[in-house]
Specification:
single chain, 499 residues, alpha/beta, Rossmann fold, 10-stranded mixed sheet, two-stranded antiparallel ribbon, 14 strands, globular
């Protein structure tokens, strides 16, 4: 039997009593442990699942927030000193850990079809591709995501939001939290990995450096899933030119490219588009209105060739077609539908075919329909965590202080200091929010010195922002993580710089 629901832990009554005395239902410091078995890659894997709340402490040691986490630990491993630990974050900022938790690396995942589209009735099923066979995993919900909340002091006063809601504030308190978690669970000897998705890539990039600098905790690997710019600057002509390869991917999927391109494989077409974007288009965009008219017309024709858009559209936008307009316009004259932002395989139906942006994100609406009931059911019925709190799929974290974002440069510096630290980037070709080509650009910036190429890798998948929703990519992406963990857990190889 896959699932054995045995309650082996008790809620800490005093913590609940304290929470309720403060007129808030937030548990402060509790755990519920259940035992399970699953089958991964054909092998039976026993494990424990700990659904818990661990505090964030202020400088005086008083709890100022309580973070929900779910910790999966393989239970047939007697000595975990060589057992990797993966610490997982989603993004937003303000997004809960639900997405990767019940759709990617965890032992239980959403019921969806092979292409990643929701099926009813919504629910949970086993994940035969989970990385739990090779690593333990903890999914962390930052403040105001999931069931995580700020805590009032003895006077009933809430803490200052600024200590949580900002690039650097987020990194600072989460570094403290991770340090406490690793200590409490006796995982200091374990190889440690950080994985983040979307804005979570900014979070884990900064965390890798912060843990190394302030906690002396050295990380073996960082996995960036659908990365943001992580603090690297690529506005202006670079950002505009970088859009084209994604346009090519989405247009190829919807059969909107010329036959000469459509008959080729996606990756072959993307290689052409990338080469044109970097080596020819970028220098032209730099000249803007001073570009020679004949060269501008040639660029318009070439951009139309690789984007599926009309020459008129590109001309009217001075070679700078906005993402919103692309999502609205690509299929406008064919079937009058829009395409998705986070996953451009999805189609939407607007009230009017006219306009310069879609009315809604078709893919996100679809995902929320299925993820929300699944995670609420999973915590209460399978993990035994019952609460009156609302699970925040997207929590209130505004305003978010984005100033002084040096997460990427900090990760680059941490890689220089720590010869064991490897980085892998995973991106979906049809992601229009954090495009795969921008992800490649991020990788290039991480290797500014040219000396880190053997510790950086890029993996592309034929799906969107959450590439793991498509079953073929779920298998491949988890296998890529397995290989990355194995490579990065070995230790300093012969020839490392300090030998």
């Amino acid at each position: 039997m896959y699932f054995k629901h045995l309650l082996t832990g008790l809620l800490v009554v005093s913590a609940f009593a304290k929470a309720y005395s403060q007129k808030t239902p937030v548990p402060v410091d509790t755990t519920i442990v259940t035992k399970h078995t699953t089958t991964i890659k054909g092998k039976t894997i026993p494990y424990t699942a700990t659904a818990g709340f661990q505090p964030v402490f202020d400088q005086e040691g008083a709890p100022v927030a309580s973070l929900l986490y779910t910790y999966y630990k393989r239970s047939d491993i007697k000595d975990d000193q060589e057992r990797p630990l993966v610490i997982s974050f989603n993004g937003g900022p303000g997004s809960a850990s639900v997405w990767m938790h019940i759709a990617y690396t965890g032992p239980r995942i959403l019921k969806i079809d092979d292409e990643g589209y929701p099926v009813q009735p919504y629910g949970i099923k086993s994940n035969p591709n989970s990385i739990l066979d090779v690593a333990d995993i903890v999914f962390v919900n930052p403040v105001n995501t999931g069931y995580s909340r700020m805590l009032p002091n003895e006077k009933g006063e809430m803490p200052d939001k600024k200590q949580f809601f900002g690039v650097n504030a987020d990194i600072k308190y989460l570094a403290d939290w991770v340090n406490t978690f690793v200590t409490r669970n006796n995982r200091w000897r374990s190889p440690k990995f950080l994985i983040g998705e979307s804005y979570g890539t900014t979070r884990v990039s900064g965390l890798a450096a912060a843990l190394q600098d302030s906690k002396w905790m050295f990380i073996n690997g960082v996995i960036l899933v659908s990365p943001t710019e992580i603090g690297f600057d690529f506005d202006g002509p670079v950002e505009v030119a970088n859009r084209l390869p994604y346009f090519t991917a989405a247009a190829w999927y919807h059969n909107m490219l010329p036959p000469a391109l459509q008959q080729k494989d996606l990756t072959e077409v993307l290689a052409e588009s990338e080469d044109y974007a970097v080596n020819e288009l970028l220098p032209l965009i730099v000249k803007s209105g001073y570009l020679d008219e004949s060269k501008k017309e040639a660029a318009i024709k070439k951009m139309a060739y690789y984007s599926g858009l009309s020459e008129k559209t590109i001309r009217q936008n001075n070679l700078e077609v906005p993402f919103n307009y692309f999502w609205k316009d690509l299929l406008r004259d064919r079937d009058g539908l829009t395409i998705g932002r986070l996953d451009s395989r999805y189609k939407g139906m607007d009230v009017k075919e006219s306009g310069d942006r879609p009315d809604y994100n078709s893919e996100l609406t679809s995902w929320l329909h299925s993820f929300t009931p699944a995670i609420n059911y999973y915590y209460s019925q399978e993990l035994g965590l019952k609460t009156d709190l609302s699970y925040n799929m997207f929590g209130p974290v505004r305003p978010w202080d984005r100033s002084n974002n040096n997460a990427g440069p900090s990760l680059r510096r941490a890689m220089g200091v720590n010869p064991n630290l490897n980085v892998m980037i995973q991106s979906g070709y049809y992601d229009g929010a954090t495009t795969y080509f921008n992800a490649k650009y991020v990788m290039w910036q991480l290797n500014a010195s040219g000396k880190l190429a053997d510790r950086l890798s890029f993996k592309g998948y034929r799906s969107g922002h959450m590439m793991y929703l498509r079953n073929e990519d779920l298998i491949k992406a988890n296998d890529d993580i397995r290989a990355f963990i194995k490579k990065s857990s070995i230790g300093i190889e012969k020839g490392a710089i300090h030998k």
